[in-house]
Amino acid sequence: MHADIVIVGAGMVGSALALALQSLPLKIVLLDSGSLSAQPLDFQRPFAPRVSALSLASERILTRLQAWSGVQQRRACPYYQMEVWDGDGTGNIQFSAADVHAEHLGHIVENDLVQDALLEQLANSPIQLLAHSRLEQLTRSQNGWQLSLSDQSLLTTPLLIAADGANSAVRRLTQAPTREWDYLHHAIVTSVQTEQPHQHTAWQRFTATGPIALLPLTGQPPAGHWCSLVWSTTPEHARHLMALDSQVFNQALGQAFEYRLGKIIHSDQRFSIPLRQRHLKRYVQPGLAFIGDAAHTIHPLAGQGVNMGFLDAASLAENLIAAAQRGEQLASERVLSRFERQRMPHNLTMMGAMEGFQHLFQSDHLALRLARNFGLKLMNDTPLSKALITRQALGEGSYLPALARPLPS
Predict the structure, then answer these.
(1) What residues contact 168, with CB distance under 8 A and at least 6 apart?
(2) Which of 211, 268, 304, 402 is the most exposed place for a label (fewest CB within 10 A)?
(3) Is-contact 67 22, C-beta < 8 A?
(4) Where is the FAD-binding domain (predicted)?
(5) Are strands 296-297 and 76-79 parallel, antiparallel or unpaired?
């Protein structure tokens, strides 16, 4: 089979890209090793362990793709404030939507629910979906690429887009040059019920072993008392936490979080995820582009990973559609490099900021501890600095592709 564009990976970012490209009069194939059918709504099922903090820019992208209403019909919890404090001192900072005259800072949503909302739209689109199709081999040909799939079928295309996540098969098979390093940290993720309500606030405490985040969730009783936990810590401490029974783990979490939301009443099944940072040296080659986690992975410190991916998808779609209207070859490196020039500086800036935060708050050096506490206090008392950081988190701190710009009022 031949297609004009093949997108490998139908996660949130790959699915968003496919929807953004559906207006092109081209044959576009979206393939994934898993199911491509949206799951029926089930408000009784437990929260999924993987969530994202969707920014306003991501919400606008999903709105223009007709998928945001599907997300809201599921379980999307708006948050209006962010509270960050240093567990080794007295430094703290609060961010509020009101500070920048925004309705909210974003929404905490389970990843698979965002995926389901996108799949609902894809089911009614001209995009050809290939479910349960795993990429086995990849060969560059004179006219592009030949993909060998797990069902023994072959697929050819002049333009291949890799959206297949942090463990990208396309990246591995093309041996794309990458910078990567191990954080020497694992993230413990689960959902917890707290004694006190979350107040639609994203809470984050920095400790000597790593940051702990409690992100507000909605959709399970008692209302307002469920949070998604991301506890980043050393591998040894992570193994210790994973071995604890639920009652002891809940006590350890409550203590580590300084009982900011009271006791931990209940915790769901825990998962431990090793953390690595990764960034491709180039996002594009002739006939090939990488987006989302296939191009860059970031510490889950600020929940920015999927927001960066959605902006990648919006930027690539915008450049491909514009190139098609000008009659250019979509697979040319000249066309694809426009996307890279738009997105790489923003992504590197975000990754550098997260890396700096991570090192700053992990240091036990007395001078750094004093400096970070003073810095947090100073920033908290400087409205302009807080507003700039808040707008970055909203996804409004740099050039925005058309899909992510403010909606007409």
Answers:
(1) 9, 162, 290, 293, 294
(2) 402
(3) no
(4) 3-347
(5) unpaired
Buried b (16+ CB within 10 A) or exposed e, 127-140: bebbeebebeebee
Mean pLDDT of 75-96: 86
Query: How many whole angstroms separate alpha carbon 251 and alpha carbon 41?
Result: 33
Q: What is the pLDDT of residue 357?
A: 61
CATH 3.50.50.60 for domain 5-180+276-404: yes
- Domain assignments of the chain as residue spans, ordered by start: 5-180+276-404
Whole-prediction pTM: 0.93
**pLDDT at residue 397, as a whole number:** 62
SS3 letters across 172-241: HHHCCCEEEEEEEEEEEEEEEEECCCCCCEEEEEEECCEEEEEEECCCCCCCCCEEEEEEEECHHHHHHH
For range 102-124, the mean pLDDT: 96
pLDDT for 40 equals 87
